[in-house]
Amino acid sequence: MDLRELLMMANENKASDLHLTFDSPPILRIDGDLRVTDKEVLTKDQLKKMIYGILTDRQKEKFEAERELDFSLALSGMDRYRVNVHIQRGSVEAAFRRIPLFIPNMEELGLPPIVADMARKKNGLVLVTGPTGTGKTTTLASMINLINEERKTLIIMIEDPIEYVHFNKKSIIKQREVYSDTHSFAEALKRCLRQDPDIIVVGEMRDLETISTALTAAETGHLVLATLHTPDAPQTIERIIDVFPSHQQSQVRLQLAAALQAVMSQVLLPRAEGDGRILATEIMIATPGVRNLIREQAIEQLPTAIQTGSAYGMHTMDKCLQELCQSGAVKYEDAVPHVKNVEEFRRLFR
Fold first, then answer.
1. Does the predicted TM-score (pTM) go above 0.85?
2. Identical fold at 3-99 and 106-348?
3. Could you confirm whether domain 3-99 is CATH 3.30.450.90?
4. Domain boundaries, the chain
5. How far is CA 85 from CA 80, 170, 203, 232, in A?
6. What is the per-residue pLDDT across 179-209, written as a single tens digit (0 to 9) for each?
7. Terminal C-alpha separation, the chain
8. pLDDT for 293
9. Is the pLDDT of residue 296 over 80?
10. In the sheet that 80-88 helps form, which strands lie side by side, from edge to edge?
11. Residue 168, number of CB atoms within 10 A of its CB
12. How far apart are the C-alpha atoms of 210 and 190, rounded to whole Å?
C-alpha cells in the first residue's frame, strides 16, 4: 500500500478527504460521511514513511520545528490535494482535502444567479462564509473564473495553501502561497496594494491586521473577495467588528458599512436520493438599509432585512432550506440542524 494508490482510491470514489491515522485503516469522507476502507491498519512507522515520502527536505525541517505543516500536493494523473500534516499521540498523521483539477461553473455548483452579480462588482468587500468543508474555496474559485472569462483585470490571490490553479484568460492572475511566497496573509495583503491589483482575493480573513487591511483595500477602489468561518451574515458582521479593540469598533462599523457589498453564507447537505450533496445558501446584499443597520449597530435586525430583501436577491438560509425540502431535494431531518427558526420551520412541514 502506497500513498499514490490511496489518493487514486479517493479520486475514484469522489471522496472529499482522505485521513491517514495511526492504528486504523485509511478513511475516506464521501458526501460528508466518514467511511473506513478495507485496507490494512496503518502503523506509526508506515505512516511516517508514507507521509515523509512526499515532503521536501525544507518541508521536513519546517514540520519537525513547528509540529504542523500545510501545503498543496499535485501528482500527475490525478486531482490536487490540500494537505495538513500533524502529530497525534506521537504519531505523524495527515489529512488530504481533494481539489478537482477543473473549476466548476456557478450553474454546476447550484449557486444563485445573484452570485455572478457579486463577482462583477467593481469595488468593495464580498464575503463567502460557512463552516469548514462547505465549499467556500470552490465558490470563490468559480467567482474568480467568471471574472477571468469576462474582464481584463489584475487579480492577486493570497492563499494558504494554493488549491485551485487558475490560468490567465482575459485577466492576469497572480497566486501567492503563504509561507512559501510570502510570510503571512497580512504582510502579503499590505504589499499587494503596491502591485497595481484590481481584485484581491484573501483565502481567509484570520486576524485583525488582515481584516483591517482588507477593509482599507475595499474602501480604496479595489474589489476584495474573502472567506470567513462564520455561519451567517449577522455573525459575519459581528466577527469582523469584534476582532478590533473596543475603542476602534465605532470607526470599523462605519468602514464596514461603506465597503461591504455582499455576504453569502453556505452549507452542504446530503441529497435526498443519496447521491452527492447540494448547496444551501443565505445571501445578504449591502442595500442602504443594511448599511444603516451596520452603522447603527442594529445587527439583530439584519435577519429581518434579509427576509424582506428578496427584490434585491436576498434570502435567508431558512428560506433556502424550506425550498429544498419542499422540492424533495433534501430530507427534513438533514435540513433542521441548519435552521435558525426551528419552530416556524417545523410548522411548515406538519
1. yes
2. no
3. yes
4. 3-99, 106-348
5. 16, 36, 19, 30
6. 889 988 888 998 998 999 999 999 889 899 9
7. 51
8. 98
9. yes
10. 33-36, 27-30, 17-20, 91-99, 80-88, 68-74
11. 10
12. 8
Does residue 161 have a cis peptide bond before it, meaning omega lies within 30 degrees of 0?
yes
**Judging by beta carbons within 10 Å of its beta carbon (0-12, 13-18, 19+), is residue 76 exposed, middle or buried?**
exposed
Question: Per residue in 254-284, pLDDT tens?
Answer: 999 999 999 999 999 999 988 889 999 999 9
- Rounded mean pLDDT of 225-236? 96
Cell readout for 259 is 465597503
DSSP of 244-261, one letter per residue? S-GGGHHHHHHHHHHHEE
Q: State the pLDDT confidence band at 13, using cuts at 50, 70 and 90.
A: very high
> Which residue has 476602534 as its cell numbers?
248
Q: Are 282 and 232 in contact (CB under 8 A)?
A: yes
pLDDT of residue 94: 97
Q: Which residues lie closer than 8 Å to 61 by C-beta, 6 or more apart?
A: none
Q: Which three cell numbers stand for residue 31?
A: 458526501
Parallel/antiparallel/unpaired status of strands 154-159 and 124-129: unpaired
292 in Cβ contact with 336 (< 8 Å): no
Instruction: Classify domain 106-348 by CATH number.
Output: 3.40.50.300
As a residue count, the chain comes to 350
